[in-house]
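From the shared-data thread, chain only:
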Amino acid sequence: MPARTGAEYIKGLNERPREVWIDGERVQDVTTHPALKNGVKSVAALYDMQHRPDLREEMTFASPTTGDSVGLSYLVPQSVEDLERRRQMMTRWAWSTCGMMGRSPDFLNIIFSAWAGASGYFAQNRPEFQRNVEDYHEFLREKDVALTHALVNLQRRRTTNPTDTLSEEVVLTLVKENDAGIVVKGSRVLATLGPISDEIAIYPVASHRLADSDGRQSFSFSIPCDTPGVKFLCRESFDLGRSHFNHPLGSRFEEMDSVVFFDNVFVPWERVFLLDDVDLCNGYAQGTSSDAHTGHQVLTRCLVKAEFMLGLADLIVDTLGSGTIPHVQEQVAELITQRDTLWACIRAAEADAAPNRWGVMSPALPPLRAGRTLFGRSMYPRMVEIIQLLGTSSLMALPTEADFETDLAAEVEQYLATDTVNARDRARLFHLAWDASCSAFSGRQVLYERMFGGNPVRNALALYSNYDKEPFKQGVRDFLGMEGSDIQESSE
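Structure, as C-alpha cells:
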C-alpha cells in the first residue's frame, strides 16, 4: 500500500473507533466531534501533500519492499544527503501547520526508523525483539500509520531523586505474561494526538530514568488505539468552534493532549520491543541514536515556528507602520537572531553527522540539544512576548468576522484601516497574532515547548553530570601553566 491520502486516514479512524472522553462525554466519532474534527482535517492535509504532483518526489521515496511511494519520514538515513532530504520533507509538513503541531506523524515515524536501523540493540534483550522492531517499522511504512506515544508515568509524589517514585497503584505496570503476550495496567501521559492516531507506542523516556527495582515498568510496545481497555481522557479543547478568521490557529491545529488509562490491556508478543531490562530501557535513546533523529525533526519544526513568528511580527510592523521605531527594529532583529541560531544548530548537526554503531547516518546530538533547550526555555516564550509588544492595543481592539456584516461595518472599515491595509485584513492579521500570543491555544503552545523534552531542570542536571567538560578544563590548566612558567622565568 503506498503513502496514504487524507481520506484514507479519516476512513481508518472511522473504521477503528476508540474509547475517548472529553468534558464528561464519551466521543462517538473523533472525525466529526467539534473538539477534534479540525485537528483530523489538518493531519489529513499532511497525508494529501504526499500525493501532490509537485511535491511527490520531495515527500516520498520508493519502498524497499514493494517499490511503491511511501512517506520519506520512514527512510533510514545512510548519508548526510538523506538527512538533508528528509529535513526538507519535514519542513514542508511543519509549514503546513505553522510549526504548531508537535505530533505530526513524522515525529514517531523517525523514531521507529532509527530503531529499525539499530534493531540489533533490541536483540540484546531478547533475540526475537530485533525482528519485532523491523517488522513494525515495515508495517508503519507500508500502511502509513498515524502513531502517537505516551512516555511518562503519573506520580503520586515527586522527589529530588534522579529516578521517578513509581507507585503500582497508578503507573503502567506489567501484570502478567503468557505464551501469547503480556498484559499491562496503569496510566501514562501525555498522548498528544492520541485520540486521532491509529496506534500508540509506549516506551521509556530518557529524562525519567527507571530505577533498578522498576523491572515491571521496563518495557516498550505498540498497539492500536482501539485495543480493548485503552481509554483516552482529553483536556479541554482549544478549538472553540470559531471561524478560521477569528481563531486561525486554534480552529485548525488542535492536536489534543490526553491521559491514557490501560485497563488490563493485552499486547501480543510481536508488538513487544523491550521487556524487563532496566538498563536497555534507560539507554535506548543513545543506544539507537533515536534522540538525535527526533532532535532533528523537533528542531526543524521549531525553526519553522520561529520563521512563522518572524513573518507574523514583520507583517504587524508593516500593518501598523512602526518600522522606523528603534525598539521595534530591535525586537524584530531579536527574532531574526533566534531564527538564525536554530538554523545554525540544524546545519551543524547535519555537517557533523556520522554513522552510528549500527551504520545509520545520525545527526550530531550536541547542537540539536542546544537548540531544543534554547527554544523551549527562552526563545519561544520571548517570541510570544515580542508579538504582544509589537501588537499592543491592536490585539484587543479587534472586531470579529461578524462585525463586518453589521450596520457598523462602514465605521469599522473607516476607523480601523491603516495606511497599508484595509480594516478587514488588519483584523484578520491580528486575530492570528492573538491566537499566536494571547489565546488559550497560544498558552498551551508555550507550555508545550517549555516541557517538550521533559523537566528542564532534570535535563540540565543530567547534562551537567554527563557532559565531557575535561578538554575545556585542561585548556585552562594549560594556560595557567604557561602563565606561571613565564612569571617564574621573568623573576629569575
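Confidence is low (pLDDT under 50) at residues 487-492.
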